[in-house]
């Protein structure tokens, strides 16, 4: 090959063709060999493309286009050469140039403007394939400038005699509108004309397609064309056209409820008549999502769905399930009728089908079957692959928490279900479970004892600490155990769990929650120990484990001592042991926390020092007063007691859920100027240190762990390094506190009235179970005989979870629809005269949409309605009446407007529909 | 509208890619890779539709069909009917079959521009403009003829043309 300069004759003579290039690439193995071959070819192409010979240049561009689109090679540098080729009179070069342009040009390509003239020239070419090339290219690379400059040319093509070109220019129009909304003013009329001319199925399909796209973004503007779409719905036999028209009606139906009455019957006719599954499904979709109030139509649609569900074709079954999902919100009976199929689909091989089935199962959930369905689903979750397992958990969580846990009656059960979920090996929904555990704790007072039990079970299991996905759940468990420690049977046990060595596997943000919970537990224990007479009513009633040998040997009778009097008497007796155990806890706390006092994470350091401060003070005083254990009175006067009293008062304050807008609703106090610049304060405050530590332990909301900490997911490097070490530590720990690691037995002791959700023994006969239970609890709709009433759930008036974000509409869409409205309404008068004079002799129906305006005269309006009557003969009397009424209304409105004066004040969409 | 038409083989190599909205090249390749990573995990004999909002952007669906070693894929939004798109793949493959009797992957590898020509006759600007395979074939033949005539003229005037190879 020649040297560095331009291409030589040799290059042209022995140029590799595209085929050579492809074969060359195939000869080289993927990897280094191939990429070096490609870069060698690129060098060749760079030389060849500069050739003055169009053949050489064309081949070079062809090769480059190939490399660009399938091997990801950049070809922006060759844009000019592509433009050059498009101007060639030879079709093959022109085509190569256009293909390169449409595949590689971007809105920022600077030579784009050079293409404008060439496009214009080709759009008016006599060769239809050249026009088609230009249209195709324009539709892909369209920019506002190109659209603006070429709108007149497209406008001309919209009435082109060759259908081949007309359909393509219509399809291209959509892109033009998107880039240059003003084009609507020019072209919309002709677009509507194309809608009315039913002589060619393909142009009609393209036109309806464009309207479908436009209506999907902003349907209101196209409401006046409803009669035209209706005519197409009734007359057309082209499935593509019908599908698009159905989609248009789906958009329009939301705005104009009266449409439904008219279109439901023709849609049903199509559903009954059509052989094409695509059309049938579209009819079904339209009916169940937009016209679900028409019982007969829905029945027909559900029958069709059933056909789909029983079909052997998986695609149809999938769509059938989708259809069923659309019916579910309005007609749950349809789902119940097909529940066997749905539940069987839950174990289908096809992921899609499984997911749809899951959604359907969730749609069947109600307050009286939620327990059983969740039990069965947990069984499925344990069996399925991680992805589907999490999908199951996700949908369970979202269904159960819907409308502030609307369907949950037994919160104890639900909270323990959340605990079960955390133990599912694939569980990755930590964040949601964390949120719900805390949320329920704050909202539902009655469930707090159970919540603490679940939290304890989670905290105490060292295995869970190794799974980063459930760290968030542990954080919630730690928080509830600390916050509601007064419901705990064994606060010391919680303390042990919080202190276990493997907690160093937790990220710092969660560790700090752990440490703060220790603080709460500690202050609670100290309070109960030091100031029992005060705490008797509030907390001590639950504090019955502080008894002889409480720490290591738990006797069951403790739980079976409900009598308050005996308890307080045993409490007096057991004081000695309590002192020992408090002492124990304090020592343990100080030993394990002291190394953390110099932690790099400020949150941890801060909190550790708080806890240590309190613990050390307490330890000192308690051991000093060892002899005073008989005299309770003295305890009250200890420094610790005073502090504990203050802390406890602060901690006891209950705080509930807070709405998102709470901050905004706090009135700004008089005299507070928020905008005032505070920088002047810097000089004053420079040497004043804020009393952080005190304020921190007194103000609780700081702690709310739901505030996603930015570094919550970052594992502390240093600490994870000790992971290996921790296993041996754990073994030691287990040895020492062997009794704490008996969760299975423990659960039985703390007997709950419901079965554990994922009991392996109950998991086998899933399908029959689910079918049976849906049978029982759904069909009969009997009220469950509740053992206890649903507890009070605190609800907020507004925005309970997420603030509603206002959807912003695309500016362009606004412009388009504005222009459409102008065309349809504003310039109606001129349009009307144009059309009625220039065309339409026999086709009265096509006048319809043009006449439909405030300015049309009533006699014509009436004739329009009559035409419609002809189109659809069998109509019920109701709609007939409706029509008359509307005619009357039109008249009245017109009179009010004043005769003859054509003034359209505002773009009211008149009703053409009845 | 139709957002993209993609053909990839069962090793993830793209054979044809056409995006109807401007998509930067890197984005295109990323999408193709993520589509392949989803498709290659799907067993045979499962449904051909995929809800693609998670990896293709909001309101995206995907229909694919595996013919021998090639996946034919349409990406589209809720303005299209899934089964109709499925039929469209069928039509496209039918036309390919007519163009290269007994079509195989190599035919497509070597005739990338022809695949574009056929596709452009069926879809323009994301809208389906022709579904009749006869009519598409007719247009494609006309185009091929025009390509040949001009190339043949070249051939006479310039003996270096390799077009007839």
From TrEMBL, chain A:
The keyword Transport applies. It comes from the Eukaryota. Residues 859-868, 882-894 have a biased composition (Basic residues). InterPro entries: AP3_complex_dsu (IPR017105), ARM-like (IPR011989), ARM-type_fold (IPR016024), Clathrin/coatomer_adapt-like_N (IPR002553). Residues 707-727, 833-900 are annotated as: Disordered. GO terms for cellular component: AP-3 adaptor complex; endosome membrane; Golgi apparatus. Part of the AP-3 complex, an adaptor-related complex which seems to be clathrin-associated. The complex is associated with the Golgi region as well as more peripheral structures. It facilitates the budding of vesicles from the Golgi membrane and may be directly involved in trafficking to the vacuole. It also function in maintaining the identity of lytic vacuoles and in regulating the transition between storage and lytic vacuoles. Belongs to the adaptor complexes large subunit family. This is AP-3 complex subunit delta.
UniProtKB/TrEMBL annotation, chain B:
Belongs to the adaptor complexes small subunit family. InterPro entries: AP_complex_ssu, AP_mu_sigma_su, Clathrin_sm-chain_CS, Longin-like_dom_sf. It comes from the Eukaryota. Signal peptide: none annotated. It is found in: Endomembrane system. This is AP complex subunit sigma. Residues 1-146 form the AP complex mu/sigma subunit domain. GO terms for biological process: intracellular protein transport; vesicle-mediated transport. Keywords: Membrane, Protein transport, Transport. GO terms for cellular component: endomembrane system; membrane coat. The keyword Membrane applies.
């Amino acid at each position: 090959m020649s040297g560095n300069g331009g291409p030589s004759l040799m290059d042209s003579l022995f140029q590799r063709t595209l085929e050579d290039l492809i074969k060359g690439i195939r000869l080289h193995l993927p990897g280094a060999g191939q990429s070096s071959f490609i870069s060698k070819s690129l060098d060749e192409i760079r030389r060849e493309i500069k050739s003055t010979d169009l053949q050489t240049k064309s081949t070079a561009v062809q090769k480059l286009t190939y490399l660009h689109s399938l091997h990801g090679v950049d070809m922006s540098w060759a844009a000019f050469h592509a433009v050059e080729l498009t101007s060639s009179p030879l079709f093959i070069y022109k085509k190569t140039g256009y293909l390169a342009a449409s595949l590689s040009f971007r809105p920022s390509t600077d030579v784009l403007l050079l293409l404008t003239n060439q496009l214009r020239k080709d759009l008016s070419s006599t060769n239809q394939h050249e026009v088609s090339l230009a249209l195709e290219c324009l539709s892909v690379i369209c920019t506002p400038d190109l659209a603006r400059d070429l709108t007149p040319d497209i406008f001309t093509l919209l009435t082109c005699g060759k259908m081949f070109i007309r359909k393509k220019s219509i399809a291209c129009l959509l892109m033009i509108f998107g880039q240059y909304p003003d084009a609507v003013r020019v072209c919309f009329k002709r677009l509507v004309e194309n809608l009315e001319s039913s002589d060619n199925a393909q142009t009609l399909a393209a036109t309806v397609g464009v309207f479908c796209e436009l209506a999907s973004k902003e349907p209101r503007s196209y409401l006046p064309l409803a009669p035209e779409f209706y005519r197409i719905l009734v007359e057309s036999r082209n499935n593509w056209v019908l599908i698009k028209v159905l989609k248009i009606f789906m958009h329009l139906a939301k705005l104009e409820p009266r449409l439904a009455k008219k279109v439901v019957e023709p849609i049903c006719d199509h559903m009954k008549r059509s052989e094409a599954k695509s059309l049938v499904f579209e009819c079904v979709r339209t009916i169940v999502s937009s016209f679900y109030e028409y019982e007969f139509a829905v029945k027909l649609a559900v029958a069709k769905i059933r056909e789909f569900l029983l079909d052997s074709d998986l695609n149809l079954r999938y769509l059938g399930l989708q259809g069923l999902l659309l019916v579910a919100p309005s007609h749950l009976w349809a789902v119940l009728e097909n529940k066997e199929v749905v539940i069987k689909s839950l174990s289908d091989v096809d992921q899609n089908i499984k997911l749809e089935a899951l959604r359907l199962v969730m749609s069947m959930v109600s307050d009286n079957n939620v327990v059983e369905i969740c039990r069965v689903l947990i069984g499925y979750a344990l069996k399925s692959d991680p992805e589907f397992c999490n999908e199951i958990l996700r949908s369970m969580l979202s269904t159960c928490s819907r409308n502030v846990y609307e369907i949950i009656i037994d919160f104890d059960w639900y909270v323990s279900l959340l605990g079960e979920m955390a133990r599912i090996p694939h569980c990755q929904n930590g964040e949601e479970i964390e949120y719900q555990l805390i949320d329920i704790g704050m909202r539902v007072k009655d469930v707090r004892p159970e919540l603490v039990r679940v939290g304890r079970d989670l905290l105490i299991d060292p295995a869970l600490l190794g799974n980063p996905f459930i760290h968030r759940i542990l954080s919630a468990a730690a928080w509830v155990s600390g916050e509601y420690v007064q419901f705990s049977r064994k606060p010391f046990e919680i303390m042990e769990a919080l202190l276990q060595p493997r907690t160093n596997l937790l990220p710092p943000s969660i560790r700090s929650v752990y440490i703060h919970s220790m603080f709460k537990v500690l202050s609670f224990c100290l309070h109960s120990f030091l100031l029992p007479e005060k705490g008797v009513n509030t907390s001590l009633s639950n504090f019955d484990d502080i008894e002889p040998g409480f720490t290591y040997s738990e006797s069951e009778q403790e739980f079976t001592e409900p009598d308050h009097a005996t308890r307080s008497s045993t409490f007096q007796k057991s004081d000695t042991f309590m002192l020992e155990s408090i002492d124990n806890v304090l020592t343990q706390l100080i030993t394990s926390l002291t190394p953390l006092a110099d932690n790099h994470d400020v949150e941890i350091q801060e909190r550790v020092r708080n806890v240590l401060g309190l613990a050390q003070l307490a330890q000192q005083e308690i051991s000093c007063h060892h002899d005073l254990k008989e005299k309770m009175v003295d305890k009250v006067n200890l420094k610790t007691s005073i502090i504990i009293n203050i802390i406890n008062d602060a901690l006891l304050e209950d705080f509930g859920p807070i709405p998102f807008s709470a901050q905004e609703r706090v009135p700004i106090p008089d005299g507070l100027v928020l905008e005032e610049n505070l920088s002047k304060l810097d000089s004053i405050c420079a040497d004043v240190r804020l009393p952080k530590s005190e304020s921190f332990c007194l103000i609780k909301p700081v702690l709310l762990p739901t505030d996603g900490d930015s570094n919550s997911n970052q594992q502390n490097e240093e600490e994870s390094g000790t992971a290996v070490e921790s296993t041996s530590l754990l073994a030691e720990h287990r040895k020492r506190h062997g009794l704490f690691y008996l969760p299975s037995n423990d659960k039985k002791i703390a007997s709950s009235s419901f079965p554990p959700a994922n009991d392996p023994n109950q998991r086998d006969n899933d399908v029959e179970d689910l079918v049976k239970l849906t049978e029982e609890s759904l069909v009969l709709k009997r009220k469950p005989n509740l053992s206890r009433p649903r507890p009070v759930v605190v609800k907020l008036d507004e925005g309970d979870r997420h603030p509603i974000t206002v959807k912003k509409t695309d500016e362009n869409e606004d412009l388009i629809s504005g222009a459409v409205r102008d065309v349809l309404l504003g310039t109606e008068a001129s349009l009307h005269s144009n059309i009625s004079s220039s065309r339409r002799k026999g086709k009265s129906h096509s006048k319809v949409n043009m006449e439909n305006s405030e300015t049309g005269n009533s006699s014509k309006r009436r004739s329009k309605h009559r035409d419609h009557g002809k189109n659809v003969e069998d109509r019920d009397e109701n709609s007939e009446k409706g029509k008359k009424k509307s005619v009357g209304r039109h008249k009245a409105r017109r009179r009010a407007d004043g005769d003859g004066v054509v003034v359209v004040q505002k773009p009211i969409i008149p009703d053409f529909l009845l | 509208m139709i957002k993209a038409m993609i053909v990839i083989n069962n090793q993830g190599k793209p054979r044809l890619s056409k995006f109807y909205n401007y998509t930067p090249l890197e984005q295109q390749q990323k999408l193709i890779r993520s589509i392949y990573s989803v498709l290659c995990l799907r067993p045979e004999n499962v449904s051909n539709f995929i809800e693609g909002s998670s990896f293709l952007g909001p309101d995206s669906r995907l229909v694919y069909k595996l013919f021998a070693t090639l996946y034919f894929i349409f990406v589209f939004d809720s303005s299209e009917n899934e089964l109709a798109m499925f039929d469209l793949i069928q039509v496209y493959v039918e036309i390919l079959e007519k163009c290269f009797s007994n079509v195989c992957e190599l035919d497509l590898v070597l005739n990338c521009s022809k695949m574009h020509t056929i596709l452009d006759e069926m879809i323009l600007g994301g809208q389906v403009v022709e579904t009749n395979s006869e009519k598409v074939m007719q247009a494609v033949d006309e185009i091929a003829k025009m390509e040949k005539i001009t190339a043949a003229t070249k051939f006479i005037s310039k003996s270096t043309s390799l077009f007839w190879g």
